[in-house]
Amino acid sequence: MFPRYRFESEFYPGLSRVPLHVRMKLDLTGVKISLNDWLAFSMEERGVLCHLPVETEEEKEIFSSYLDFLSRRCLGKQAERVPPIADPPWENRYRIPNPVEGKSLGAGKAVTLEEWGGWELWQRYALFKLSVSKNEPEKFREALEEFRERTSRSC
After folding, report:
1. Are 26 and 129 spatial neighbours (Cβ–Cβ below 8 Å)?
2. Taking Cα atoms as reference points, which of 4, 7, 6 lies closest to residue 137?
3. Which stretch of DSSP H or E encloses residue 12?
4. CA angle 135-4-56, nearest 5°?
5. What is the Cα–Cα distance from 7 to 65, expressed in whole angstroms?
6. How far apart are CA 78 and CA 86, in angstroms?
7. Measured in Å, how far apart are the chain's first and last C-alpha atoms?
C-alpha cells in the first residue's frame, strides 16, 4: 500500500492524476512525466509506479528504468530526464523549509519543529511541494490540517 492523502482521494480510484507520492519518486529519480504521459499508461502500470519503492539507489534505478520502458512502449520516446533533487529539504527532520514555514504561518499557525520532525517523509514532501506550488493553494491548508489531525489522533 502506498501512502494516500485525504486531500487527493478523488484521484485514487482511477489514478487520474499523478499522486504526490509518485511525484516525490520522480523528483528523487530525476524523471519527468506529464499528466498526458501518466494517463497513457494502463491503470495497472500506474499502480506499479505508485507501489515501487525508491529508498535505495538500486530501487531508484529500477523505478526510472521501468518508467523509461513504459515511456518507450506507450509514448514512443525515452522518459525525459532532469537532475534529481539533491539534498531534498523534506528529508531533514530538524529544519523546516522556509516555504513551509511561511505558508503555514499564512494558514494560521506555523508548523513547529516538533510537528515537522514527527511527520513521515512523504508527509513532509507533500507539505514542501504544496508550499512551493502555484496551483491549488488550498491543498496546502488541507494537507496541513490532515497531518495535524492524524498526529492528534495518534497521541
Report:
1. no
2. 7
3. none
4. 95
5. 30
6. 23
7. 23
pLDDT in tens, the chain (155 residues): 789 999 999 999 999 999 999 999 999 999 999 999 999 999 999 999 999 999 999 999 999 999 999 999 999 999 999 999 989 999 999 999 999 999 999 888 999 999 999 999 999 999 999 999 988 888 999 999 999 997 666 65
Cell 512523504, residue?
A: 122
**Which residues are registered as beta bridge partners of 38?**
none
Please report which helix (H) or strand (E) contains residue 80, including its range.
Answer: strand 80-81
108-137 burial: b if 16+ Cβ within 10 Å, else e: eeebeeebbeebeeebbbbbbbbbeeeeee
CB 139 within 8 A of CB 146: no
Exposed / middle / buried, residue 52 (Cβ in 10 Å: 0-12, 13-18, 19+): middle
pTM: 0.90
